[in-house]
From TrEMBL:
<dbReference type="InterPro" id="IPR020575">
    <property type="entry name" value="Hsp90_N"/>
</dbReference>
<dbReference type="Pfam" id="PF13589">
    <property type="entry name" value="HATPase_c_3"/>
</dbReference>
<feature type="domain" description="Histidine kinase/HSP90-like ATPase">
    <location>
        <begin position="25"/>
        <end position="179"/>
    </location>
</feature>
<keyword id="KW-0346">Stress response</keyword>
<dbReference type="GO" id="GO:0005524">
    <property type="term" value="F:ATP binding"/>
</dbReference>
<dbReference type="InterPro" id="IPR037196">
    <property type="entry name" value="HSP90_C"/>
</dbReference>
<feature type="binding site">
    <location>
        <position position="82"/>
    </location>
    <ligand>
        <name>ATP</name>
    </ligand>
</feature>
<protein>
    <recommendedName>
        <fullName>Chaperone protein HtpG</fullName>
    </recommendedName>
</protein>
<keyword id="KW-0067">ATP-binding</keyword>
<dbReference type="GO" id="GO:0051082">
    <property type="term" value="F:unfolded protein binding"/>
</dbReference>
<feature type="binding site">
    <location>
        <position position="77"/>
    </location>
    <ligand>
        <name>ATP</name>
    </ligand>
</feature>
<keyword id="KW-0143">Chaperone</keyword>
<dbReference type="InterPro" id="IPR001404">
    <property type="entry name" value="Hsp90_fam"/>
</dbReference>
<feature type="binding site">
    <location>
        <begin position="97"/>
        <end position="98"/>
    </location>
    <ligand>
        <name>ATP</name>
    </ligand>
</feature>
<keyword id="KW-0963">Cytoplasm</keyword>
<feature type="binding site">
    <location>
        <position position="339"/>
    </location>
    <ligand>
        <name>ATP</name>
    </ligand>
</feature>
<dbReference type="InterPro" id="IPR036890">
    <property type="entry name" value="HATPase_C_sf"/>
</dbReference>
Amino acid sequence: MQEKGTISIHTENIFPIIKKFLYSDHEIFLRELVSNAVDATQKLKRLSSLGQVKGDIGDVRVEVAFDETKKTITISDNGIGMTADEIKKYINQIAFSGAEEFMEKFKEAKDANEIIGRFGLGFYSAFMVADRVDIESLSYQEGAEPAHWTCDGSTEFELSEGSLTERGTEITLHINKDNEEFLSKYKLQEILDKYCRFLPVPVIFGIKTEEEPDGEDEEGKPKFKSVEVPNIVNDTNPIWTKSPNDLKEEDYLDFYKQLYPFSEDPLFWIHLNVDYPFNLTGVLYFPKVKNDFDFQRNKIKLFSRQVFITDEVKDIVPEFLMLLHGVIDSPDIPLNVSRSFLQADSNVKKINSYITKKVADKLAELFKNDRPAYEEKWPDIGLFVKYGMVSEDKFYDKAKEFVLLTNTEKKNFTLEEYKEKVAPAQTDKDGRLVYIYTNDPQKQDAFIQSANKKGYDVLVMNSPIDNHFISSLEQKLEKTSLKRVDSDVADKLIKKDENPAHILTEEQSAQVKTIFDKAINKPAYKVELESLNPDELPVTVTMDEFMRRMKEMAAMGGGMGFYGNMPDNYKVIVNANHKLVSKILEQENEETQAQLAKQAFDLALLSQGLLTGAELTEFVNRSVNLI
């Protein structure tokens, strides 16, 4: 048998396209060829189960080998094999997919979806790294003759009688000069570990040495000897392919350690298993992240029938869950021909929604079944929950039952619980509920204490997502607003009908304002006099709640760039009823009045961490001189 011909393709430029554009990374060739080999073994097992293969098929396997001297890499299997006619059909006719035809023919079979390979373009990825590719194949069919196919990367091929004596296929790549880096045990092992680690058929790459028992020594202690065994690179039955009922906690933790050997144990996990209206399996882990908003992305691995595809899953997994770790496996996720990128598809949206629902259900279950344990995990999972509530309305509707608000006393409340707690004291004269919060309890301690004196509770909102979460709550909660504790003096945070009497005359008020304006002498600080409780601080420096929030969101890239470019402006609130103000008015020397006013202003800045550098040094020196 000898035949020469031309590969049936639509353009002679297919090889440059494959080599330069179709696959973004040359190492993909090994994934494609090993996947095709696994496909061949899966086909054989399926046909055998249907009684279409005579005799025992034995243990199926895939082997990868290389020869650095000959500059070759060989991928072999003992699967279904091919006849010469099938080689012409599946290899030469590039646009035809053997796997698709097989799945259509045996679509009634229970697990036809196990067929993962795509002979055709997947096979031709070999020419990214090889000058020549040889195929030796012997079909499982009774009386089949071995066939040999060779091609040098042009559109011409040669098909002749082969040399295989056992069923299967052997593909040999003659590596070109530019890709000799792949002729390395460590490089090939690295690629196999990345893409083939969980394939459903054993993949053998060379041999390895193991220790096995070898009797006992003279003292009765066990002895061991070194033996060489096949180096099987993959776990053919990873936990996401098993039923959750068959798994224990240690199984999930052991698998997590396999994936992320240097990570702390996860908080909990979710086992995904659905077969309608799409196929999806996997395990998603909640890691310990605290308030770290620097997303460690690419921690979720996407597989298609146990073949690793990518760790870029932003369209499948909701944005707010990109901090999760784990594995997703679905044959229904549409990929482009190189399997490198997701394509827009309704199944992707369905899977995204399904994952969102599963996460919400799991969190609700944890909260309901063991609230103390849930509260213990809250510092780690709060970021997920709040981000989800901000970004997905459907998630908000579920999460409002288990999101927690934490106050400065480190007590946790659901939204409904907190509303009941603060409504009596923190409802303003218009019937609007006001939640007060701090984003820096230490820096804003003076304001917190003033608020506490009035019977107000203060929430801690210091995660990176809280600016957006606060805005979301104001939109969702009825007649509720949130104010940072340092956005105004305590008496003005919540507008009530009662106001302390103003003890200064209009003339005295004007005089005090003039004294402070001159002492401060900064356009960014606007002085205002307020009738406050005499026990409150003499001077308080605040920034308008709206303006500060807009500037903070602009700093986070929240689309508020206009506000981010505006200069900071502060309000200097002078407590007209404080004894220090009266003392200032009693002074006959204008310089002394200015010193007292400046000292009070600097003390206010110091208490809020706003006094730094040369101004802080000047304040210290001035304070020493006043002693």
